What does this fold into?
Amino acid sequence: MNTMVSRLRRALPAALIAAAVVFPVSAAASPDVPAPKPVAFSARASPQDRYAANLGNIAEAARMAQAAGRTGRAAKLRALAAGSGGGRFLAFDGRGKGRAVEVLGDLENADRVTVLVPGSDTTMDTYQRFRAGAVALEQRLTAEHPNSAVVAWLGYDTPGTVSTTVLTTDRADGAASELARFLSEVETLTRPDTRLSLLCHSYGSVVCARTPTGPKVTDLVLYGSPGTGADSVAGLPTGARVWSGRGSRDWIGRVPHVRLGGIGFGTDPVDPAFGAAPFTAGNAGHSDYLKPGTTSLDSLARIVLGPTPAGGPTTALAGAPEASRA
It folds into this structure.
């Protein structure tokens, strides 16, 4: 026990220092940013109705932010509404740090739908970097399988990278309830034969690992994960196949995986003892997994697409060479 306490004491400062070096906190969201209340929808509201109403809400949030002198937030919101894909938002809340659930692709007709869950410091002020990964994944998927869609799910208040909140599962517990409700909603908006995949980055992997999933979720992928709070895959509330991967340049691999007194996340998901299926992440750094042209992006796409149309298995093989970059 004394050894574990000593390791934990070394690990926590190391995690915070590494985070401060790799992810300097910038464009921090202020809790007093003015915005209208989110639009409330009935259970029968179509995605198109939601898209239209939320675009109106985003425009009003941009106007209110501009009027309050929050020009940076206003500009980001205007860019959000004008983004590629026509601004398809199933949900939007511009208050405080902000929340958004954006669809890339044709959600109602896709037979492969991927939900991306982000990690710490993802807010309306940093949303574009999260969205860029969603766009890259959607483009990679549709190049091989046009009937694909990606959902960028910023449906919770992410913890700050340099904070005590990011060291516990407390924030993830509340987020998991929100994500479970959303997944149930997605099941009603998609085709009966649609396969759902959860791709969960960094602290988002803690959220996903605590989220009960329905039968439509076939794959749950943890990448750049600090751990889940569970000892093994058997402790996760899902029947999906669980995958894990980490790039060789991801700093989080150097943080000891311990858990004591509710602090830390325990077993490393890439440890064979955890029981997840491994996938190749190449030389990805912590923020690189969804960058175009990388082994990690290719591996994630293969997991999502699953069996090829000809019936052969699509696998993310260990030891695959890093894809060439443009």
